[in-house]
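tool=predict chain=A
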Amino acid sequence: MEISASQAQLATSVASVVFSGVLVLVTFLYYRETKAHTEEMAESRKAEFKPVLKGTVELKLGLHNRFYIENTGKGAAHDVEAKWGFEHLGQEVDWAIPLVNPGQRHEFPLPFGEGVNSPTTHDGILSELEGTDGILYFEWTCEDGLGNEIEESETIDVVRMVEARSGGEFVMKDEQREIRKELEDVTSAIEDVSDELSEQGSGIRETEAVKKELQKMGVATQEELAMATGLSRRRIAGITFGLKKAGIADYEEPEDGYWVHSESSNKKVEWIGY
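tool=predict ok
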């Protein structure tokens, strides 16, 4: 069957239209994917440079409540302006700083007004905020590293936070007592070991002194060794008893069997040697 020129032309036109449609579709899909990827990269880059200033009330030295501002974000905060306070007091603190780097924090007293000796302990703060909601507001603006302006605000329930800490004081005190008791036990054990080592060292020095004098004399009584070393006769009796057990000294056993008795003070001790 022969194809006429008009049929061929029609087929060519249809193919051209189909190809154009496919090309438009492919172009649209590519544009959509590229746009989505570009937006994702822009958001990721924005998040990477975004600073986040966080206000918290924390304990300092385990006793004093202080207000802290910390940059918990990944990016630096430029041209920071912040304000905070208790609404019921009508007192507001204004603060500005050129730069707050990631992880950097600044410390402030709680805003109870100028000229006031601000309370910092749990009881002092709860007394100052009695009859109020105890809400501290914190608002701030800054620019990120890309020049984007950021503005955020938050509130902190100071009363609830301090009450929770105050309620936990008794638990903390019990834990502290347990820790203190354990530390005292450890310290006592260390002191006992130290005393024992000291006594052992002293005993070794005394034994060496008796051995030296006995070796020099050859034969000596307990009294003579006591005078030569400055040790007590009972200490000499104990040391010479040990020397006899070691086989480097000898003496005649007393009839009553008690070498430490005063009756044995004139008994002769003989150096045998190693």
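The mean pLDDT is 78. The beta strands are 53-60, 64-71, 77-86, 93-100, 105-108, 135-143, 149-157, 219-221, 249-251, 268-271.
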